Amino acid sequence: MEDLNRQTRSSDQEEQNLGEEFLNVHFVCSLQPVEICGGGLQPIDSIYDRFHLKGLTVVHSATVTRQQLDKGMFNNEEDEMSQGGERKSGEDRGDGVGVRREKTDTDIVKVTGESQVYTASRDTLFQKKITHTTTHALSLNWVFGMNPALPAFSLQDHNQLVVLYAGAHVGIIYNHTSNSQHILQGHSSPILCMCVSEDRRWIATADQGSESTVMIWDSYSSIPVHTLFDCHPEGGVVAMAFSRDTKHLVTLGAGKVQCVSIWDWTNDTEKPLWFTELSPKHGFQDYIIFNPNDSTQLLSNSESHVLLYSTVQGHLQYFVLKVKKLYNAAPSSGLDATAFPQPSPGCSHIVNVADGSFTQSVFHWKEPQVLTATAAGSIVVWQLMEDLDANQSPINYKVQVVSLQKHPITVLAVTDRCIVTGDTQGHINFYDESFKLLIWYREFNLDAIVSISFSKECTEGYLEDCTLEAKPLIIRNFVVSTASSTVVHVNAQEGISQTLIREDCEPLHAVVCHPKWPAVVMGNQRGILKVWDYNCKLTICSRTFEAEKQIQCVTFDPQGLYLAVGFGSGAVHILNPKTLQSHPEECFHYTKDAIHHITFSSDSKYLATADAGKAVTVFHLKTNKGLLPRWKYLGRHRSHYKPIKDLLFGVHLDSTQPRLLSLGMDRRLVEYDLEKSNVNQLLILSSERVEQSAVPMCMTWYPPLTEEQFLLIASDQYKMKLLNSTTKMCRKTLLGPTYGAPIKKIAVLPFSKDCETKSYYMAFITEDKVGLQILPLDGNPYKSNALICHPSGVSALACSYDGRFVFTAGGSDCTVLSWEISFNALEAAATLGGKEMAPFYSLLEGGKDGKFYREMEDFFYYCQVRHQGIDSMEKRQVSTKIPLTDVPNLMRALAYFPTEQEIEDMQNEVKFSKYAETGKYVTDIDLEEFIRLYVNHRPAFGISSDELSQAFHILGDCDSTGRPVLQRHKLLELLQVRGEPMTEDEVAECFTTLLGLSKEKEERESSEQDIYKSENGDSEYSLASVIPDEISMETFTGHILGFPSSAQQGGRSSSSE
């Protein structure tokens, strides 16, 4: 704790230095984008929500500083302790690059305590089997897929093959030798770019979005050592690079006006060392590097412009390298880089490029040259001045183009005195400084090259180049990544390639787990179906559907005998799970609408699908004597008029016959009569409306925790409802998890007898998060936990047969994530929220000690007095409960105005709460039960002005100023016709109360003229004296409802202060 206390700053500087404090503490497997458990109803909006940190485990304070980099304090590959116990000097450590200098007496560092960064070596991550920490309810276990647009880097090459790549919002360090992953988890948005230092010790990752974050990691321990918050708020970071000495990091923004910033990341600083803004006329710069020979120079390029940067004079300035006319030279001519033909006198250097757009640029390793590759397969050579002074632009540079090949060059690099190119055909070529072809690799059958990363270790032996001289050639091993998410390791000496990763870079929406095996099935939009063993981390089998594309959904039957696949074309295939083959008769095409949901019955005799045409289709397994069972089409019914959100099989209570239900955005729950349905005639048994204003999102069967059987339905208003499975009566309404977006899919985890907690749990996904919920549901916000899984959107959820893993499909990010579950961590987090009523008090404004709770108590006790009679002089009967009939008025007194249906649901919830156990109704309620009822039924976030404005836009018409208004007669008509219709008496009573009309005035007006009807007797209100003809939103809220305006609220708050 002493190390931690030394870093703790004063409270008035805590928020300002929050990012700096984070840099000085290391966390083991704990930096996860987690929604804080028990966030309740409050929107999440703080600086640490960018990481969503939770359950941090402090290991040791270890800030990476400039002095430590200078002194070489961190173990490199060769930086091992000598037998005498002293660290080897810089001279003895071989030919490492950039982060060390000559050793002096002051370089002997005395370390107190154990820092995991300081003591880490290249084998730290994978020296033993990875065991994930159990401090989180959900821990990211494996990442399937990668981002093909980002490069893959070689981290280790000799003893074990280790590469770095990105997928979704995480970086993955993959050890191919041990088939294991270590995940860099800390971003809350998709990773947009990353880079590594030249010695492969440090990794930098950056995400996109308005809260763009750059994180620098130690590759040996996977610990984050520095974080840059909001460095490029407009669009994030599109490219970045370390300097060769690793002391500086350059970031290139992705905003409309791009900004280049150079960070001294080894010091505690929140601002860049240098920065400059780029003119949009130079095009969108998407690539940047340091000059490896001079860290004061940088280089970036767009498709049309190359920019050269310099920091010689203490600030960052840039120069534009322009061309209009390119002097061609064939590579076979033995081009001398120092002898360029001079342009004719008076010829402008600003000339048109006819050879295609620029792709990448690099510095020459020896000469003052910049090399730029083009999409036309050529290299533009810029000959710069020997010494670039900061006060002058390099206007006297010379330009020449070298035509190398026909295909576009996508990657350009320099290594070991060689120029290396990769192109769209998957070819990799090595050239000398005169652009003579030395060696090529074209037999690997690759597609477009995205990146080439060379090993930091030199290889033994040498090759002979392809020139007539056959000179010896030393080439390091390298790793190639392609546009199809393939990563290949190439042994340069032997010319042998080894595929490390082969993923399918297509959107992936379908994932399901086998009900009895440790296998997960994934299907993507290119028609590739893959079965993966998540214990052994191996692919079992795969199949590519040539005729059908776009796999939308997959499911197993409960016995694991059949695997059904739904396609975007409307086709349904039923496969053998072991071979992924199907019988021609079991490939169905009964609709052209995409299949969105597919499910089997519990007895494996029925299969149902729901498609984009809002129809449900059912297939039945037919068994004939002497023949194999075959699936046959039963019927199809367009049972909803809005998209179907979920499809579910169940079992009737009084029999073992299956039942089928569908849930639609039309708020209807439809049950089908499977027993009486015939071929081409699917019958509907019932259709019930289950919501008034909310839109149901998903449903599942509630586990057997009560005497009744319930159907659980989650809505877009963050509510969960328990419906009686037989009567469809709403028996309970509960506050659901509130993590920024409504729940879109739920699944009850299989009950495990081996689980220490002996409880049921439920997994769920929202728009971008995955979470767990402890059952039974009661509205306690601390019993749920969620974290970001796919920032660009999660499309599917699957649970393993043993309840140990949850899998999420990311759709557009082409990844599937495997999450390991820790029920003990989930229960521990729930315990921290308090026992009994403590979690519910926290949901009230001000808590139990707040003003709102005291008002609630006062209203509750007033209901008791009112029930006994306010004017009664008899002795009061003290009670802790109020009649159930007083609950609606008490809710309204607390500013929650339920509809008549919601009142009925509340009363039924209390009335039948103990009926299954005792056979008796409950007719009264105490204060604690009322608080639970209130926090579960009231709107999760209240009613916003945006919702009211949207209602006026839908129901009203625009006036001359474009403001939506409602006509008086239309408002009164809507109140009597739409929704829950009000009677004329109810409307009159409401307006009388809202507008403050006295009873005497009301009676006087009634005697003179009927206020309910006009003179001709039509059923039309004549309240013109108090209600204007045109009602705007401001008139409705201020004049009719009596809400104070924003100006009045501001005046009140200032006067109170």
Task: Give structural notes.
- The structure is a single chain.
- This protein has a five-stranded antiparallel sheet, with helices on one face. A five-stranded mixed sheet has the order 19-23-22-21-20, with no helix packed on it. The chain has a four-stranded antiparallel sheet with strand order 2-60-59-58, with no helix packed on it.
- The longest helix has 18 residues, at 851-868.
- It starts with a helix and ends with a helix.
- It is globular and about 115 Å long.
- By secondary structure, it is α+β, with helices and mostly antiparallel strands.
- It has 17 helices and 65 strands.
Distance between the termini: 41 Å
What coarse outline follows from CA principal-axis ratios?
globular
Question: How many strands, what sense, and barrel or not for the largest sheet?
Answer: 5 strands, antiparallel
Output the strand order for the largest sheet: 1-57-56-55-54
Query: Which residue ranges are poorly predicted, with pLDDT under 50 across at least 5 consecutive positions?
Result: 1-63, 70-112, 332-355, 1008-1021, 1051-1057
Helix count equals: 17
Strands, count: 65
Helix content: 10-25%
Q: Taking all residues together, what is the mean pLDDT?
A: 81
- Give the structural class: alpha+beta
**What portion of the residues fall into strands of 2 or more residues?**
25-35%
C-alpha Rg (nearest Å): 35 Å
